[in-house]
Amino acid sequence: MDFYAFVEGPLTWIAILVFLVGIVVKGIMYYNASKKTDKMIHKYFSWKWVFASYAKWILPNNVTFKKQPLYCSAVYIFHVCLILLPIFAYQHVVMWEMSRFGWSWPSLPAGLAQWMTLAVVVIGLALIIRRALHPDLKLLTKPVDYLLLVVTILPFLTGYLAAQATLGTTGFLAENMQLFHMLSGQLLLILIPFTKLSHVVLFFFSRGATAVEFGRREYSV
Predict the structure, then answer these.
(1) Burial of 109 from C-beta contacts in 10 A (0-12 / 13-18 / 19+)
(2) Is pLDDT at 126 greater than 90 in this prediction?
(3) How many CB atoms lie within 10 A of CB 99?
């Protein structure tokens, strides 16, 4: 088995497994910790408050959005594309069809997927620049935060370059762009459970806890 075949096959499944197991373990640890430190939340837990809060924060319908509509719109688009593209990109759907599972589902139109990919790259770069230039954010941002943003957008950038053959068909980068795309995607999957990127799942825990606390105090969620 050559290196490309290893990356395309076993390493892909290793990355997916690390991601899934890591996220589940992280969620369980977060939940168990909250039972010890936030007993009031579990005592007064209500799905009504939780889902009301999700509706306000997952959709652009919250106080922060009203104060910063442009920034929040960009971040919203960024996260929607981050979630939908890996699942519904045509090439990824085909990968699952050809796997031992044989799973299949509708994919995104090629043109829409292309624009969504560009949105991730452009907005991601804008977020990096914003952190570097905004005085308050600059003080709070550590080198690892910049690195995580780069790691996040890299699979989308390499995927776009590979799909569009932007760099041509010859040369080291052009000939290996698909390999770089797979490796960067696998790196992102593996890092998610062990870094701040785990908020992709922990957001729902923390937002739910806040919703219950606000709900029992009769504040707006």
Answers:
(1) exposed
(2) yes
(3) 12
Burial (Cβ within 10 Å: 0-12, 13-18, ≥19) of residue 31: exposed
Token pair of 213, please?
């606390």
pLDDT digits over 1-55, tens only? 688 889 988 999 999 999 999 999 988 887 787 777 777 676 767 677 777 777 7
> pTM of the prediction?
0.85
Q: Tokens for 88, please give them.
A: 């519904």
Tokens of 160: 């776009």
The amino acid at 115: W
Percent of residues, the chain, with pLDDT higher than 70:
87
Extract the tokens encoding 179.
């390999």
* 144 CB-contact burial (10 Å; exposed 0-12 / middle 13-18 / buried 19+): exposed
Residue type at 194 in one-letter notation: F
Phi, psi of 181 (to 5 degrees): -65, -45
Greatest pairwise CA separation for the chain in angstroms: 63
Cβ neighbours for 150, distance < 8 A, ≥ 6 positions apart? 128
pLDDT at 149 over 90: yes
